[in-house]
Amino acid sequence: MQSKYSINDNFRLKKANPSITVLVGFGVIIIAGTLLLLLPAAVKDKAGITFIDALFTSTSAVCVTGLIVRDTEHFFTPFGHFVILCLIQLGGLGYMTLSTFLSVSVAKKLSSNVRYQTIDEFQRFSAKNIRRFLQSVILFTFTAEAIGALLLLPNMLRHVNDPLKAVWFSVFHSVSAFCNAGFSLFSENFVLLKNDPFAVLVVSMLIIIGGFGFIAIGDIRRNIFKKRRQFQVHTIVAFLMTAFLVLIPFVIFFFLERNNSLSELTIFNKIVNAGLQAVTPRTAGFNTLDLSMMKNATLFMFILMMFVGASPGGTGGGIKTTTIFVVFSAMINKLKGRKKLNLFRRNINEETIFRSYFILSISLFLIAASFLFLLMSESYDPFKLLFETVSAFGTVGLSSGLKGTSVSLSGGFTWVGKMIIIIVMIIGRIGIMTSISLFITKDRSETIKYPETKITVG
């Protein structure tokens, strides 16, 4: 029961279901993280941590979500913080990225399964470019995180008295921001930094760069010094959508919250914090403002942004910026009566359009089903449950919070509710297409052709 895959016509690969590699890879890392967090050395509480809470924390870190059921600062020890940081880094880069890089660097060869899945994940050129591409991805990631940590260090020194601890806080938050994880070593997340505009700007830039995607970043790097630049359509779409999803929400957020959650800040700090809050719902999960103070209209805008998420090949989740762009472009194209979808002098094939609609539809179904199950198992406000569900799917980490605590709303869920969120986080991280392909064994050719018929729809 094997199916064939063709990658850019350079080679053909046979594998029953390559997506299982991704699921197993993430599963192994999540379970390993869970076991490490269950160790007495990982937590300060002598009673330890329950298995479901350790599993939730590990999943949230690997899926770079940021939803927490335990106070990261006070509940976990420095060893626990280190485990969480490693899980964030592994999840941010992606299991397939790391496994392929190690396979190429150490074994000097790729298994066909790993090679196929990596090309499918990054939608890159020929197989011979994989090694160079992955090396550049890891080098860029560590460089960006190192620069971010250096820039955050002076600010951390003002809030943390111990210099070594300040260095650790800088590294942790830089990695968490670049990987769009949203984990913080401060109990109130970044609320104490709301009057520190430089730190807010650094975190915002790390979030944008990490969520922009390695594919687009690589394309920009190749073209930036050329006299005749030829950017891929993917890069153009990712850039336009990123700009749109930052600028428009910024204006809306500033208008809605200027006399509300932003009221106590100076005009400059209002602008800076509004900028971060426009960026963070894209899958980052950091907040410098109290979400419980925000208007419902603001939170609903966050839900829409969390659903869209980051760009393909980046460190975030959601249905991806390019997916929503193709869907809306195809809808507008249809309204204009055009049969072919052309973007930036390139034709978008029917398979890409169908795939985009398919991802959108299945994602909405997943969120609706998960939301329904949470309504059945939990007794919290429905709007807050919906917010938590979409945050988990988009691997964002924003939450309305559990009243009287510094943890996410999920912290008050039953084990059933926590398992639902865990499953949603995993699907949101590995992607809808990868999740669905777990149940697809091979292409089925139709042997019987039936007469056509029409069904009235709409």
Describe the structure.
With 458 residues, this protein is mostly helical. It has one domain (3-437). Helices cover 60% and strands 3% of the residues. The chain has 18 helices and 4 strands. A two-stranded antiparallel ribbon has the order 1-2. The longest helix has 30 residues, at 130-159. The model is unreliable at 1-16 (pLDDT under 50).
Low-confidence stretches: 1-16
Return the structural class.
Answer: mainly alpha
Placed side by side, the strands forming the largest sheet appear as: 1-2
Count structural domains.
1
Gap between N and C termini, in Å?
Answer: 39 Å
Which strand-content bin applies to the residues? under 5%
Topology:
Blueprint: E1 3-7, E2 11-15, H1 19-37, H2 51-62, H3 72-75, H4 78-93, H5 95-107, H6 112-122, H7 130-159, H8 163-178, H9 197-212, H10 214-223, H11 233-257, H12 267-279, H13 296-308, H14 321-335, E3 341-343, E4 346-348, H15 350-377, H16 382-393, H17 415-430, H18 432-437
Antiparallel strand pairs: 1-2, 3-4
Helix pairs in contact: 1-2, 1-4, 2-4, 2-17, 4-8, 5-6, 5-7, 7-8, 7-9, 8-9, 9-12, 10-11, 11-12, 11-13, 13-16, 14-15, 15-16, 15-17, 16-17
Brief descriptors of the model:
disordered N terminus, globular, 18 helices, mainly alpha, two-stranded antiparallel sheet, 458 residues, 3% strand
Give me a quick take on this structure:
The chain is mainly α and 458 residues long.
